């Protein structure tokens, strides 16, 4: 064993190591090398915030499990699933919106909007996302419901865990894990329905004919749901998730957070019925706020990184306050600034409009506006022009110059359409496309609903007399649904250039 | 290990004894999950040795219980690919060249097959983009020695040029100078004559002297007007396209030595569907041939 020499002084290592850190002082003992997780047995509470949490849980899980089953009629050419990520055909369907791979910037926009919304909400109300809407929180909540069903509430659970193995303990544990697995399986299973026609895939899943990726995805999500929501829980939020760190940067003294109002609660202590409240705070030190906390923290220590702002401790404490006949709200959504103001005998003011919230709000509005404008003015017709780079041009036997272009035409509507392609900008230019009918000076291309085609188009023009090697030109597509124009150039060369090409 | 270790004041953790710029490293234990994953990888690797080919030996290697072989996997993958292509390419077999070109789906499939086959087999001579080089025809323009219609291209690819195939395309430009068929002065005059054919200024006296020689020696293949003949692969001498160079030195050299290229008969190597795809690819990329 190593001898410990403490250079700082003997007091230092006698004090209890900080929570969550360090080995036992003896260091190196078997079993003492690692700090074991302290199990958390959150107690069931009732109250306003718990009710809101139940409602959000039902709403979010309902959306998640049921959304793929919503039908949406898009005609015979497209799938009738309201929300579908169709990898095979590279499409994303969301109710009336249909996105093509070229439009992934909408997803980028969506992510930006989501981030900004999160910034704004956090600046205003703290980590509401974490407490109410985060999948980790929601599923953990659901898993705790199942746990309670088999093992009872906090006290019963603690007793059960401490008890030696018995038949009763075994079946309760087995039952719990079975239900957990079932929920996980349903979660992983629901995920893959977003990527295939749900009713078809459901049948295939049961007869064992679904694609391997479907089974694999379901298995992976089953595993992650089971391990994250079932066994890891608050550790995910505290140790694995980057959001708490990022969200911390959005908060300031005026953000509404779950707050223990020290100005009112201290000094705390047990209270006997019938005695007075003079000279003491309202907190009766019943630790109800601690035992209900799913993160296993004591909010009376002040706001902490672990706190997800779920408000369950508010419900617990409000209950106690009612029982002891004191006003509710010893723990409440409040701001650091307000607590400070009351401590100094000032009247607290709540500032919702601050430079930070203004900035987040305005940016959010601008980005959402741009997204909306883009979606509403989106043309069902799209055209990409790719110039041949090698060779940049070809000199024909009669001395004319020919340029090649690849045109990509997309019909993002549900109706067939004929597109008329024309070219302008170069004198005497003639169009030609192999395999597409010519109509005078233009080419007609018929595209089915939701169809696309890439077309090799050649433009031939007399060699220019002047020195110009690059002439600006335009491709234009006309269709009943509108018109699309793409700029390009026509390249040509002098005699010398022409021969180098060969 | 050193006999004495320092303990950090704040965390109560031992330090490693290392110090960099006054910063000491804490000797925190590995996280439990990390350790378990580490053990799991060790277990995995042992399982891997048992199941998969792993250890080299003197007479070969351990084969593993699964009998896995990268070679066999590749062979199987190639076989699967062939069947896959067979399904997609079935239409290529039955459709005519014109039908392939007119059907957008079939055309784009033929283009992608044609592109990869071209890049692997034709590009060394004709260039990645088919623009050719001196002595190697440009396939992107409208000049064709053996015809630029779909069927012509298909046939040329199948039988090749001077390839030794019984049906080969065959043309032969004599080495008029080297083999002594013409006098050096006559070759000089012919050079002027050919230059004049392609609408360039030339020595009128030489052109007049060469006219009867051209009619006698060259017209049989290149035509009386010099416009060539695709039936014999004889180039058109009146256009702006020169396979062996347009300047007088190159033309002279061509009459003197009579170069002619060789192209393999790809019919021995590709199945008919692949050749069709290649023909469509070349036809489309040349702007529809001639
Ligand atoms: S301290 Fe209160 S608000 Fe924070 S996580 Fe615990 S119960 Fe939720
Ligand atoms: S629940 Fe309220 S009264 Fe009880 S310990 Fe917590 S803060 Fe104090």
From TrEMBL, chain A:
Residues 18-27 have a biased composition (Low complexity). Residues 9-34 are annotated as: Disordered. GO terms for molecular function: 4 iron, 4 sulfur cluster binding; metal ion binding. InterPro entries: 4Fe4S_Fe-S-bd, 4Fe4S_Fe_S_CS, Cyt_c_oxidase_cbb3_FixG, Electron_Trans/Redox, FixG_C, Ig-like_fold. Keywords: 4Fe-4S, Electron transport, Iron, Iron-sulfur, Membrane, Metal-binding, Transmembrane, Transmembrane helix, Transport. PANTHER family: FERREDOXIN-TYPE PROTEIN NAPH (PTHR30176:SF3). This is Cytochrome c oxidase accessory protein CcoG. The lineage of its organism: Bacteria, Pseudomonadati, Pseudomonadota, Alphaproteobacteria, Caulobacterales.
TrEMBL record, chain B:
Pathway: Energy metabolism; oxidative phosphorylation. Heme c 2 binds at residues 173, 218, 221-222. It is found in: Cell inner membrane. Keywords: Cell inner membrane, Cell membrane, Electron transport, Heme, Hydrogen ion transport, Ion transport, Iron, Membrane, Metal-binding, Oxidoreductase, Repeat, Respiratory chain, Transmembrane, Transmembrane helix, Transport. Coiled coil: none annotated. Heme c 1 binds at residues 122, 125-126, 263. InterPro entries: CcoP_N, CcoP_N_sf, Cyt_c-like_dom, Cyt_c-like_dom_sf, Cyt_C_IC, Cyt_c_oxidase_cbb3_su3, Cytochrome_c_Oxidase_Subunit. The keyword S-adenosyl-L-methionine does not apply. Its cofactor is heme c. Residues 109-198, 205-286 form the Cytochrome c domain. The chain crosses the membrane at residues 33-51. GO terms for molecular function: electron transfer activity; heme binding; iron ion binding; oxidoreductase activity. Binds 2 heme C groups per subunit. One of its GO terms (cellular component) is plasma membrane. It comes from the Bacteria. One of its GO terms (biological process) is proton transmembrane transport. Component of the cbb3-type cytochrome c oxidase. C-type cytochrome. Part of the cbb3-type cytochrome c oxidase complex. Belongs to the CcoP / FixP family. This is Cbb3-type cytochrome c oxidase subunit. It comes from Phenylobacterium montanum. The lineage of its organism: Bacteria, Pseudomonadati, Pseudomonadota, Alphaproteobacteria, Caulobacterales. The gene is ccoP.
